[in-house]
Automatic annotation (TrEMBL):
Coiled-coil ranges (or none): none
UniProt cross-references to InterPro entries, sorted A to Z: TGF-b_propeptide
Pfam families cross-referenced by the UniProt entry: TGFb_propeptide (PF00688)
Domain spans labelled TGF-beta propeptide: 11-71
Organism: Pycnonotus jocosus
Domain of life: Eukaryota
Gene for this chain: Tgfb1
Protein name, per record: TGFB1 factor
Lineage: Eukaryota, Metazoa, Chordata, Craniata, Vertebrata
């Protein structure tokens, strides 16, 4: 063991605290999300859901109906292929 002890004394590598690095990365991602949402800080508590505007609801319903109609009109796949 004596030959190893001098080499340990000259080590310039710092130990890495993985938990601190993980927490720092979580905070960075949280900050990026808030920035993308243009919020200065996380919302304190979710409030009551706002009703959707009628235009949004109509667009959603028409899109859903169009997709259902396309599904009905689609040719059944040939099992031989």
């Amino acid at each position: 063991l004596s030959p190893l002890s001098p080499s340990l004394a000259f080590s310039t590598c710092r130990t890495l605290d993985l938990e601190a690095a993980r927490l720092k990365r979580i905070e960075a991602v949280r900050g990026q999300i808030l920035s993308k949402l243009r919020l200065p800080e996380p919302p304190s508590e979710p409030g009551p859901a706002r009703p959707l505007p009628e235009e949004v609801r109509a667009l959603y319903n028409s899109t859903r109906e169009l997709l259902q109609q396309r599904e009905r009109l689609r040719q059944p796949e040939d099992p031989r292929e």
